[in-house]
Amino acid sequence: MLGALTVFSLALSATASGPCDIYAAGGTPCVAAHSVVRALYGAYSGPLYAVHRTSDSTTLNISTVAPGSVADSASQDKFCAGTDCAIVAIFDQSPRGNDLTLAPPGGAAPHTDLGTNASRERFTLNGHPVYSAYFEGGMGYRNDKTNGIATGDEAESMYMVTSGTHYNDKCCFDYGNAETDAKDHGAGTMEAIYWGNCSGWGSGDAKGPWVMADLENGLWGGDQKVNPSNTPIQAEYVTAMVKGKAGGFELKGGDAQQGNLATKYSGPRPNHYNPMQKQGAIILGIGGDNSDWAVGTFYEGVMAQGFSSDSTDDAVQANIVAVGYKMLP
Prior knowledge:
By secondary structure, the chain is mainly β.
């Protein structure tokens, strides 16, 4: 009889190449690759994230169960049994070493952010149980001293897989490029994926939620305050994508369980955002100045060097769909 791990490894055979292998093949290599649920390279077998146990203040790294596979949730279950655990680090799987740790105080929220409850949400990838990073406000991760992340007006591409049902209208559930000192440096000093239905700066059609770009001093669903072509995505799991280059940016999104990506916007940047002045830090779950009032869920995300092709984007989406995100009954 095949063991559970063997069965799962066979189920992943169609996705032996991870998203970062796809980006590399397309000439836009990953410079950051974060996930609490799976390897993002076909050969990656290192740690995915670290959990801190309240009972005795010890920490354990959670790795993959096999190269290119999913998180070893059984190790977390054993380590956290009978006590509380928080995710205190999410490791970069790329060679750049851009790990994320708890976000320090910033201009908007002058306190160190909390880590997410490591056991708050359990679901499966192709039948294997894993856990998310479930943000409930006051939680966030950051790296202000990065390697290889785009600065100035350099091109970059990024995606994250998030929950389509856990969001709010607060600032800002982001993943991507931000200021290096957790302070607001003005328009164009950020370029990050935003997911939610905040409409204070810009929005898409109807009431959201939308894939938008946090470009600092504004969440943008296009180059105008309202972009009716940026329609809400209604799905349990969502793939959200932002790509930027000199003179313009692009937004894509889709159902992470099925189908293709849809382009929500492709064109010039809003007024006052050209050229960009990106600084190259990485944030997760917060805004660039540590605005930490949003809620959301993070499963996986990548930042890549350069402006990825449509064929690369499509292949990444197909890879995400193939790993079988699924809620527990």
